[in-house]
Predict the structure.
Amino acid sequence: MLNVLAQLGRVGIGVLERLGRGHLLLLGILRGLPDLLPRPGLLVKQIYSVGVLSILIISVSGLFVGMVLGLQGYYILSQFGAEQTLGVMVAASLVRELGPVVAALLFAGRAGSALTAEIGLMKATEQLSGLEMMAVDPVRRVLTPRFFAGFISMPLLAALFSALGVVGGYFVGVGLLGVDDGAFWAQMQAKIDLHEDVFNGAIKSVVFGLVCTWIALFQGFDAVPTSEGVSRATTRTVVHSSLAVLGLDFILTALMFGD
Amino acid sequence: MIHSRTIEILVGAFMAAGLVAFFFLAMQVSNLSASSNGEGYDVTARFDNIGSLKVRSPVTMAGVRIGRVSAIGFDRKTYEAVVTLRIDAQYNVIPEDSFAKIFTAGLLGEQYIGLDPGGSEKYLQGGSEISLTQSALVLEEIIGQFLFSKAEEGGKLE
Amino acid sequence: MVGSVDKQVPLVSIRGLRFSRGSRVIFDGVDIDIPRGKITAIMGPSGTGKTTLLKLIGGQLRPSAGTIHVDGQDIHRLGNRDLYRLRMRMGMLFQSGALLTDINVFENVAYPLREHTNLSPSMIRKLVLLKLEAVGLRGARDLMPSELSGGMARRVALARAMVLDPMMIMYDEPFTGQDPISMGVLVELIRALNDASRLSSIIVSHDVQETSAIADLIYVISNGKVIESGQPEAMINSESAWTRQFMQGLADGPVPFHYPAAELAEDLLGESC
């Protein structure tokens, strides 16, 4: 019985320790911002590997998710004779929920795991120690640019996802199923609100971008410096980021849309 | 290793694409251009019952959207709902004796305010009050009345 | 610097160093003096924490007790800024080379210059090519680290460690896993660089032959303590049986060949019962 309690206590302490280290790391990363500003080249390079390399998966998924929404939405709405509102349904679900959330999940899988693996390998091959001994702070030099690259890329990727999703829904709804072109756009424009829907969705994606990048960097930086440790850290990145995104999505949705 | 200039170009293209997507959402999907929020004037109208009318519900005239509901209040003395309508600035020739009714879009749709123009030479301006109003039709009441009258008819027949 | 004037003060002086990882004690009261301008070797069997010692000297780890003074400064009492300033004058050669894998050889060597100086591109180019020439890899400047052999990677890392003209270089197991030719090259390089640039060198290694060929002073550590120290010749013919076993590479001695176990006969017979 006491053993079980002790085991539980150890787990709890371990979790708290990791959380503490994670927050200290975040502080260190943010402190590196003044060093980053005069060297935008570092940021551009990281936006390339974090953002540009994720475009393909994000846009293809966005297009298909929109097309599926178009099909399913049409099927349900036509039972109530409300096909005209297909545009509203597609756009609202994309802009409010699916855009930020699915893009963040894909981002965690594509860019987050790559970041963890990269940082973990740099640690395993002593590159981070090497930087330290060259009197270069690896947190500021390696982690900070990657963090802000994630921060910038994620909202753009989510916007791409939503926009392409709307286009996908338009193709299916208007092109394939014969919903009226004007009604599709007009209903959408009447019901989707810039502040309520588009901005709140954008805020969500910014938060998800921060959290996913932070988790990925921390897992890489905190990884056991062996090949096994790095592969475990990569898995943890995807699992933790996904759970964090879904949990935060609930909280943010409740805060934003729950009256 | 890709040349750094290529990377810069690709990153630029990525950011441009992201911004274009965002503008697409802002302009095409949510129609920023039509929701001219700032310009307009406020008029008030009192209703006995506003049903499920909400702030931001549309105000229409002959089916054309000319404004939005900007605030809903409650008069504690008269027990009436006080609805503030923000009419877009370009619709500045609405007769003072226009009739404001609360309609429902479709059977289950949301409620909106429709204005029927009157014959007055004077026009509504900021701060005016629309005195002719008709409350929302509450479905339960209509059904109740219908059943009541049916029951009465049935009573007569027996 | 006050310390640099006085040639008598050792470059690195370690007093009463204690360090443990979890419950495992790695150093238990270690005193070491690293003299200036010499090559000092710290030797011992695998797993005695030799790399840990270098990380302690570099200030990457904190000891649980004891002090380490580098060039007169207590390295674990320095603020971040002073620590980084001191590290610029320390070079470290990691076992793997620790080259940055996403930039080529030239950029790797140029990296400390770009980070810490405002030299013009042509000046950086000259300095980098000179250092690469010194390790014989000027022709390999456009290769990526993944295209280098282990020995070449270490030589590039050596050029990088030297590019800021440090006062000391720490070598972490520079000879392990090298073929005889690159081993010979590295031995030559370490000696030549130490003498030409008036460096002080610390080598951590368990390769007895190569290390004793170039070291001026050897410390042997085992089980968290310094067993013996002295010049290489004296160490090979040491009084201590342990040191002799280690330096001459004997299979049996104070460190037994057999892992502790019951008597062989008992073990073999026991199974049939």
